[in-house]
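Box 4.2: Ligand-aware structure prediction
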Amino acid sequence: MKNKKIYFDYAATTPLDKDVLKKMLPYLKEKYGNPSSIHKFGREASAAIDNARIQVAKFLGCKEAEIIFTGSASESDNLAIRGLIKSLRRAKGAGEKIHIITSQIEHKAVLETCNDLEKEGIKVTYLPVGPDGIINIDDLESEITPETDLITIMYANNEIGAIQPIKKIGQIIKKLNQNKEHRIYFHIDAVQAANWLDLNVNELGVDLLTLSGHKIYGPKGVGVLFARENVKISPIITGGAHEFNLRAGTENVAGIVGMGETITKIKNQKSKVKSIEKLRDKLIKGVLTKVKGSKLNGPIKDEDKLPNIANFSFEGCEGEALVMYLDQAGIAVSTGSACTSQALTPSHVLIAMGLSDLEAHSSLRVSLGRYTTLAEVNYFLKVLPKTVERLRKISGR
Ligand code: PLP
């Protein structure tokens, strides 16, 4: 029991793929040149970045020149939103209104960026979601005005796995943009979707798309922003001509190499969707039958959710305490977003779905991945009911 080490937090981060690490290592050791240098060392590093750009562009079905490497998905979200707004402001001139539509359940990298822009006078509409965590297309259409410049919606949610109707939104925007001088831009945060859903940018009809290396078995500290050729964004980090003048700073060569390599492996993983779904369903069924007062949060239908995330609420249990007790039993889970789980405010995602503060505080996210086994799920199902009981006794419920 003591030596158990079960990782059920793949939505927070994924282990680095061994083959990916192998490809990265030379760029941390002997191939250490600065890609901006014109000598052999530099050219070697710069060629590695070019190769990674080809790999990512192939995955997204876009041009290499449309791929910008950043330091994280949070940075990519910021560059997409702030970069576009900055460029629009300059083009439109002061006094012209700017309107963004997003949802209430976005990752904080989008949500807080929008909050921040609101303070600068930009109008932001935060779309509500249903109890399943999915936005209503009619709500979206009714909020679009002639002033709407940007729609930014996440493809799949990191806490509940809910998938948003991105293709449909893409089609609506495309139609609205026809015969119009004014253009609506479409950004999606595809960080959690990348392992499971097709991300061909033309089929989705998106202008800007965000990815993160460490959620797809690549390294931490590297992100991608796809920015369509004819979409003008301004840099938010200045100081060099790197990344087509859109992101200054010497490139994280090894990280970028890792990003390119890991992305080529995603296709193989897609064949594993069914087996992950099976493990997840066994886990969900087990939890709901073995733990009284437990409830599944998020979409019900398979087509509306990612195959690897399950979010529960346990009556009379503090989510944070549950995480700590399970950790003692060797099981790593979380209460929601890794970035906000240290805060004591209840999850904004669960609250937007209509859960009470109490229900949101009693939530637990279990996220599975490439290396999850049936034995791990069974062990979890053995430990969880006892842990919940123990906690309920302590809190006198
Ligand atoms: N967007 C989503 C949906 C996420 O789940 C995360 C990470 O939790 C991020 C953005 C931020 O990613 P990064 O850690 O690369 O900044």
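In the box above, the bound molecule is pyridoxal-5'-phosphate. Residues 6-15+270-395 form a domain with the Aspartate Aminotransferase, domain 1 fold (CATH 3.90.1150.10).
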